[in-house]
Amino acid sequence: MTRSRASLVLSDNRKALSFLFRMSHQERCEIERKAQTCGLSFSEYLRRCALGRPVSSRVDAQALGELRRQGGLIKHLASTDLQHAYEYRETLNLIQETIRQLQRVAQNAGKTASP
To answer: Does some domain include residue 16?
Structure first.
């Protein structure tokens, strides 16, 4: 990364500048792996990291979605099975707290955008 060069690229896309910098093959592979984990292109991943924008994993989004789905199922059970409603409500509260914790972690990670 000792030398960098910006050049104009003709494109209909709004992103018309390209930036060239040096990195090792190992660094390139690690960045590509992290970008794929997040479901982002190599360039978009680097832009978000460099600009301090949120970078979240696809796995995090899937886990939150699954927790919400399970919470909905437990809420349904709590409303239909009155004999065990208290236990269902306790479980639902735990799931909701876990969702809030995951969201806080994602927000904090987005603020720092540490790759």
So the answer is: no
